[in-house]
Amino acid sequence: MLGIYARLSREDHDAKSIENQVKSGIDFANRENLQYKIYKDDGLSGTLTIDKRPNFNLLLDDITEGVITSVFVTNQDRLERNPEVWFHVCELFKKENIKLYFEGGKEFDLYDVDEMFIGSISSLINKRYVDILKKKIKAVLDRNVKEGKVHGIVAYGFTKDNNGYLIIDEEESKVIKQIYDLSLSGMGTDSIANYLNEKNIPTRYKKLGKGQYKVKDKYNGSYKTLNKKDALWKGNTIRIILKNPIYKGKRLWNGKEIDVPQILDTEFWERVNDNIPKNANNSGKKVTYKYLLKGILKCNKCGRNMYGRSRQNKKDHYYQCSSKRIKNNSCGNRSINIDKIEGAVWSRFFRDDELMKLIEKDIVKDDNKINEIEEVIKLEHKSLNSLINKKDNLIEAISDAVISKEDAKKKMESIKNSIIEKNRLIKDFQLQLANAKNSQELVKNRKKEFESFTDKLSFLEKQKIVNKYISEIYVQCWDNQTSIYSLIFKFKINLIDEHYVIDTRNDILLSINDEKFYTSKFFNANTNELSLFHNKDLLKYFFIQPSGKAVSVPFYIDKKNQAFFLHNTIIPYGNCSDWTEKKILAFYKKNPNWLSNECGLSRISVDKNSKDYINKSNGYLDFKSKGKSIEEWIHFFLESSGLSELFLH
b/e map of 99-129 (b: 16 or more CB within 10 Å)? Predict the structure, then answer.
């Protein structure tokens, strides 16, 4: 298979568009009668290392896995502008016998000494071109900034004149003053954002109205596209505005302060910033909680990140969609209990040998790792002693009346919290050190003792394992049920996506991929296969056979990976996309009892309370009275309901 790679960095204004690069590759593939797979990195520089270019990295992984046997790229500078990357790619291509083609289908001979020499020189020239370009751009920008000019996006509250000089936007500057006034009055950043949204005060993007913008996921670096007309104020935006010294007339540029027009009095700006910590919730009810799935969980309904909330009494203890942070803008997806989802995710690592073998490699004894952890512990102890000394010095300052108790209260609380967190961190590293020294014991008899194995891992070790192998997990509540969720696992390693259903109320985890139930200590130690047969909530959606294997009510997954159950259908069970008319006919010939004699529908899909049940059953009885066959009924049902076109292959 041919791998077509295309790249366009932000500075490549005159380069061919990604679409044209891809088209050239497809034309070549069609001309040579080759199957192909497309890999695109948009907005990424060729000087970046391989791990910073996700689709280039994926291309190389597919080469190693034997999926890709040849590569097309329009020219060498699309492939790289980094000599180290060039040499690595060439060695890999030679090792895996990969053919490399450039624009026009010209093959680059990796074994020709002269071609390799020219390629290496080209790589150095490409890098030099980028370095010189960056140096020139930096010099121009430095000069413009010193003259009071601006480039790119201007901070809210400002605009630029026809000559590019920074000036105050009178309308937006009023909003800036309002934000600072609200903060000084004691309002938090999220509350200020909600207030501005309620008053229909538009953001900069919303004022533009047209177009789209990209938002980078801070956890995995991916981008999603949003409409500018829908842009709302957010707490983080308010926080950035409050902290930005540009509003007191000081623009930061390369570590230096440049004088600019002043919206706020300096003393007022300082007073507001000193007051910000007082606006935080200091009730003491909220606790520091370590979230295993931070940055991994995604809302399958709107695509946003899900973040954790936890309190001491666990009354609030869940991951929820970040859309709920924006007043009146929640996507409606339900929150999911932290213990249930983390337990189910951690259980997945021990379902088969594949992931467990990978974990063994991470835990294998390594003297360098032991020395590294020991050095980290020493540094953390040194940092802890420094905090303790600060605490003692502060106590001494209070006793000597150098500082009042009231003035020292906030500082003392901060130091105490830092000491608590530092002690937790040291304990975690100490546990990692013990595990590193006793790694062979940890993985011994892993199949029988994997549960006790994980009990001995520190939180950071667990988090490292989860983040290393799982890319994203999409979560969505099914059919507005309060406890049944769809989970879609996406991996960083060569595993297909896995789809699960989790019932958090009844402690049940079902794999849609292989239609099996899984139980473990991490999810619920008391759950077993026998309890499934008596679960009325679960039996609305799944049928458990005497063998213990489960099949679900027919469902389909749309293009957004949202799952929906289908009731009163001819499809026997499970995922609609797994069935064809031929397979359905063969199934009912082998399993005639699965087809209801009363209504001609799959027995496990029958829902007599549904409005369409009577129509469908009457249609079947009419069909039957005319002496038509089951084959004809199945064909008629699929065609008339549109299932053939929508789901079936």
Answer: ebbbeeeeebebeeeeebeebeebbeebbee
DSSP string, 558-570: -TT--EEE--S-S
616: left (phi over 0), alpha (psi -120 to 50) or beta: alpha
Distance CA 503, CA 485 (A): 6
Residues listed for the chain: 649
Nearest CA to 344 among 510, 134, 211? 510
Who contacts 176 (Cβ-Cβ below 8 Å, separation ≥6)? 156, 157, 241, 247, 263, 264
Cα separation, 21 vs 32, whole angstroms: 17
Q: Is-contact 565 553, C-beta < 8 A?
A: yes
pLDDT for 407 equals: 73
CA atoms within 13 A of residue 121's CA, in its CB half-sphere: 6
Residue that has been written with the tokens 């192998």 in this structure: 469
Quote the tokens at residue 440.
């062979």
Contacts within 8 Å (CB) and 24+ apart, 324-328: 325/190, 325/234, 325/235, 326/193, 326/194, 326/197, 326/232, 326/234, 327/194, 327/197, 327/198, 328/197, 328/198
Of the candidates 100, 110, 109, the one whose C-alpha atom is nearest the C-alpha of residue 78 is 100
Residue written as token pair 């010099």: 139
Residue-range domain boundaries for the chain:
2-133, 158-279, 287-522, 563-646
Half-sphere exposure of 37 (CA within 13 A, CB side): 14
Under CATH, which number does the domain 2-133 receive?
3.40.50.1390
Pairing mode, if any, of strands 36-42 and 2-8? parallel
Tens-digit pLDDT profile for residues 12-66: 544 557 888 899 999 999 999 999 999 988 877 767 777 778 888 889 888 888 8
CA 283 to chain centre: 31
Pick among 3.40.1030.10, 3.90.1750.20, 3.40.50.970, 3.40.50.720: CATH of 158-279: 3.90.1750.20
Task: Please give the distance of CA 89 from its chain centroid, rounded to a whole number.
Answer: 28
Take residue 508 and report the two structure tokens written for it.
Answer: 């049940």
C-alpha–C-alpha distance, residues 512 and 489, integer Å:
12
Q: Of 10, 26, 60, 19, whose CA–CA distance to 40 is shortest?
A: 19
Dump pLDDT digits (tens) for 315-326.
678 999 988 877
Tokens standing for residue 136? 């020139």
Interval 242-272: pLDDT, tens: 999 999 998 887 777 888 899 999 999 998 9
Query: Which residues have C-beta within 8 Å of that of residue 626, sequence separation ≥ 6?
Result: none
CB burial of residue 648 (10 Å; 0-12, 13-18, 19+):
middle
β-pairing, 2-8 vs 70-72, is parallel
- Rounded to an integer, what distance in angstroms lies between the CA atom of residue 408 and that of residue 331? 44
Neighbour-count burial for 249-277, b at 16+ CB within 10 Å, e otherwise: bbbeeeeeebebbebbeeeebeebbeeee
> Going along 523-612, which residue ranges are E strands?
542-544, 550-552, 555-557, 563-565
Q: Are strands 106-108 and 158-160 parallel, antiparallel or unpaired?
A: unpaired
Calculate the alpha carbon distances from 591 to 454, 544, 596 in Å: 43, 16, 11
